[in-house]
Amino acid sequence: MLKKLFCKKHSQKVLVLSISIALSSIVYAQENHNHNEISDYEKYNKHSENDHEEEEGHSEHAEQGHDKHEEEDHNDHEEHANDEHEEGGHDEHGHDAHEEEGFVKMSLKQQQMAGIQVVKVKSQSNIKQIILAPGEVVNDLYNTTLLTTQVDSKVLKRKVVLGQHVHKGDVIAILYSLDIATVQNQLKVALSEWQRVRKLGKQTVGAKRFIAAKADYDKNKSLLEAYGFNHRLIELFIQGKNTYKSGEYPVIAPHNGVILEDNFQSGQFLPIGSTIAMLVDEENVWVEALLAPEIGQRIPVGTKANITIDKKIFSAEVIHDSHAIDEITRTRKIRLIIKNNNHLLHAGLFANVAFELAVKEKIILLPESALMRSSDGDWTVFVEQKEGVFKQEEVELKNTINGLHQIKGLHSGERVAIKGAFFLASEIAKGGFDPHNH
Fold first, then answer.
1. Residues sharing a CB contact under 8 Å with residue 218, sequence separation 6 or more, in sequence order
2. 251 and 276 Cβ atoms separated by less than 8 Å
3. What DSSP character marks residue 113?
4. b/e string for 50-67 if b means 16 or more Cβ within 10 A?
5. What residues does each domain of the chain span?
6. Residue 297 Cα distances to 111, 292, 302, 324, 400, angstroms
7. How many helices (H) and strands (E) are present in the chain, helices listed first?
8. Phi, psi of 137 (to 5 degrees)
9. What is the pLDDT along the chain (438 residues), one digit of tens a residue?
10. Which residue in 58, 67, 358, 399 has the most C-beta neighbors within 10 A?
């Protein structure tokens, strides 16, 4: 019984010991497994960090190598381009390469193919500038007279016809005026009184009567002259040699000319201020030329001109320049005078005026074909720096003289392309040239 009890207790101890050993093994194994996992993670992280460092180092090495490779390639490319430039290299189209921005290099053969013509510019002086302008023949207003009535009158007789040439002193028409008859009668009375007191003398008649008689006589004489009587007719009337009846008076031409208007008929009543006729002296005529304001301002009085009218050329001279601008045409009017020999010219004819202006300052002139617009709209020309090398340079247009442009910004002796500028500009445009970056 005791043996059995002992064996039972011993078995329990062994079982407990076994269980303890088993549990210890399990715990040890788990701890060992966890330790191995931590070691592997740390090892992985360390390996990842090493890999990352290696990758960064490799990337830096790759970038350095790539930059170095690009730099070497760029240097090789520049050396290759310089070699081609020194050897006069061409692009795939056969054109010369640009030396730098704003420059174009072309061989003589290429210039000939492109039609490029180069000339040496030089300053010129004493140039006669020709300015053309349209014009119209008008009457010489300084020698044109409107014959008008100075008092209410009636037309008794016409003495001329429209278009007739008359001379100074010729009678245009005979009129009648009641006011003239009244003044004539008053003049007769005043004349009689004045002759009487003048004969008696101032001491006899007194100073007051003497002065009054003289004043009355002079007043009526002047009034008759203002009504249309000239000095000669008044003297004839005073002498009693007047060939016209009382109240009648002639309209007399004050100078030579032609009747261009006659606004009267026989028997017509003409109130004071009515126009009887227009008398024009056509010995000289005017031509009024119309120019742009900025051009007309440069043409002084005395400037010579040639005027073409009906295929005939006449010499003329500027006598007046208007300071006003026409509100409708926005032009400036320049007046010239022409000697009208044989009365060939008449008002209303159209004319072509060629002004001759003397340009005394030294200037450089270029044709239109030498000028090109830059990308920003400025005018440019191509100046040859050395043989076959052209540079685009900005210039300023000052004026147009005889079809050529006055250029500012060039110097005498420079060689400029006057033909083929468009081709040179197109070559620069291929490289995106900016004229302000040279």
1. none
2. yes
3. H
4. eeeeeeeeeeeeeeeeee
5. 103-124+363-437, 130-140+282-359, 154-273
6. 43, 9, 14, 11, 15
7. 8, 23
8. -75, 130
9. 444 444 444 455 545 445 554 444 444 444 443 434 333 333 333 433 344 344 444 434 434 444 444 444 444 444 444 444 444 444 444 444 444 567 888 888 888 888 999 999 998 888 888 888 999 999 999 999 999 999 999 999 999 999 999 999 999 999 999 999 999 999 999 999 999 998 998 888 899 999 999 999 999 999 998 888 888 888 888 888 888 899 999 999 999 999 998 888 899 999 999 999 999 999 999 999 999 887 767 788 899 999 999 999 999 999 988 778 888 888 889 999 999 988 889 999 999 999 988 877 888 999 999 999 887 888 999 999 998 899 999 999 887 888 888 899 899 899 999 999 888 888 887 764 444 444
10. 399
Unique residue bearing structure tokens 């005791």: 2
- Report the C-alpha gap between 410 and 408 in whole angstroms: 6
Helix (H, G, I), strand (E, B), or coil: what is residue 313?
strand
* DSSP H stretches of helix in 303-410: none
Tokens of 27: 């715990």
* Euclidean distance between CA atoms 106 and 88, whole angstroms: 9
Give the β-pairing of 304-309 and 312-325.
antiparallel
How many Å apart are CA 226 and CA 215, to the nearest integer?
16
Q: How does DSSP classify residue 254? A: S
* In the block, residue with structure tokens 């390639």: 73
Both tokens assigned to 131: 């300015």
Tell me the pLDDT tens digit for each residue of 384-409: 999 889 999 999 988 788 888 889 98
Plot region of 216 (φ>0 → left; ψ -120 to 50 → alpha; else → beta):
alpha
d(C-alpha 148, C-alpha 250), whole Å: 12
CATH architecture of the domain covering 103-124+363-437 = Beta Barrel (2.40)
Q: What is the pLDDT of residues 8-55, one digit of tens each?
A: 444 555 454 455 544 444 444 444 434 343 333 333 334 333 443 444
Assigned superfamily of 130-140+282-359: Efflux pump adaptor protein, beta barrel domain (2.40.30.170)
The owner of tokens 């013509």 is: 117
